[in-house]
Write a structure and sequence with these properties.
The chain has 4 helices and 8 strands. A hairpin with a 2-residue loop joins β3 and β4. The radius of gyration is 18 Å and the shape is elongated. The N and C termini lie far apart (about 55 Å).
């Protein structure tokens, strides 16, 4: 048993020692792309040298770096049907926001978006960044299913 515990501890130490950490002044979309693990890296691209987009399983998460406020903005967007009454959409989004704490849903024009902001004042490391992506992709999938069940998506 002691050998197993020691092996697990050594594995954790080796994983942590290889985790890359970016200081806040080094955070750019290109440096964030380098932090991606094997689950996300093949699906990542940089859009117009401005946003890091990760499109996986029919969901696109766009990540923008806000240097003035040291925030990363994670966004997903879906097109909704044109005939959806604003009041119905507002009720759906308010219900989602009331029951979820990690993301915020809102509408604009013919779209709905799911958004999350992450402060990177002290820097960011691979584990934190990829772990955040895990949660965001999970929430985005739940949100997409929620919108599909409500029959408001345009596809």
């Amino acid at each position: 048993m002691k050998k197993m515990v020691l092996a697990v501890l050594l594995a954790l130490v080796s994983v942590c020692s290889f985790a890359e950490t970016l200081q806040s002044d080094a955070i750019r979309v290109a440096s964030l792309k380098n932090l991606l693990n094997d689950e996300y890296a093949p699906y990542a691209s940089i859009y117009q040298n401005r946003d890091l987009d990760i499109e996986k399983s029919g969901i696109c998460v766009s990540i923008a770096v806000g240097a003035e406020r040291t925030l990363l903005s994670f966004n997903t967007v879906w097109r909704i049907k044109k005939q959806i009454p604003e009041a119905r959409l507002a009720l759906l989004l308010n219900k989602w926001n009331f029951n979820k704490f990690f993301t915020t849903a809102y509408s604009y024009e013919e779209y709905v978006a799911l958004e999350y902001h992450m402060c990177y004042d002290g820097g960011i490391n691979t584990e934190n960044f990829n772990g955040t992506l895990d949660v965001i992709f999970e929430m985005a999938e739940l949100f997409r299913e929620y919108l599909q069940d409500a029959k408001v998506l345009d596809r």
